[in-house]
């Protein structure tokens, strides 16, 4: 693949809007989110994978699974699988997905910075 001079490379990575995990669109599409697949069910569902992930995110944090990491606690990801996580994810889950999470007893907190503690 060749890119014309002056054009940025296409952004291939996306962040899960529920947990912040960063992966390629193909990984989300084929495998879902390693943290959220049991509740979001977007593996093999291209439309839902696009609606529940965002190509726009800020910062990256590598989490190695160490539960004593202050950064993991700060981002509320200390119980998630090791990997790359976005600090902030632009966008919010669609209303129907949020309602489904509510029905499952899951408290959705957008990762876009709009909810303050």
Automatic annotation (TrEMBL):
Q: Which organism is it from?
A: Candida boidinii (Yeast)
Q: Which controlled-vocabulary keywords does the entry list?
A: Centromere, Nucleus, Transcription
One GO BP on record is: regulation of DNA-templated transcription
Q: Which GO terms describe its cellular component?
A: chromosome, centromeric region; DSIF complex
Q: What is this protein called?
A: Transcription elongation factor SPT4
Which InterPro entries is this protein grouped with?
A: RPABC4/Spt4 (IPR029040), Spt4 (IPR009287), Spt4/RpoE2_Znf (IPR022800), Spt4_sf (IPR038510)
Q: Give a short account of what the protein does.
A: The SPT4-SPT5 complex mediates both activation and inhibition of transcription elongation, and plays a role in pre-mRNA processing. This complex seems to be important for the stability of the RNA polymerase II elongation machinery on the chromatin template but not for the inherent ability of this machinery to translocate down the gene.
- One Pfam annotation, family name? Spt4
**What SUPFAM superfamilies does the annotation carry?**
RNA polymerase subunits
Name the major location.
nucleus
What GO annotations for molecular function exist for this entry?
Answer: RNA polymerase II complex binding; zinc ion binding
Which compartments is it annotated to reside in? Chromosome, Centromere; Nucleus
Q: Which residues form the Spt4/RpoE2 zinc finger domain?
A: 13-90
UniProt family annotation: Belongs to the SPT4 family.
């Amino acid at each position: 693949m060749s890119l014309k001079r002056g054009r940025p490379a296409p952004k291939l990575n996306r962040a899960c809007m529920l947990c912040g995990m960063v992966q390629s669109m193909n990984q989300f599409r084929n495998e879902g989110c390693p943290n959220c697949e049991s509740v979001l069910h977007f593996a093999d569902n291209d439309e839902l994978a696009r609606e529940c992930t965002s190509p726009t995110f800020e910062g990256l944090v590598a989490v190695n699974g160490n539960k004593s990491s202050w950064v993991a606690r700060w981002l509320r990801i200390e119980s998630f699988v090791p990997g790359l996580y976005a600090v902030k994810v632009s966008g919010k889950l669609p209303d129907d997905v949020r309602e489904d999470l509510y029905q499952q007893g899951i408290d959705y907190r957008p990762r876009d910075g709009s909810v303050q503690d």
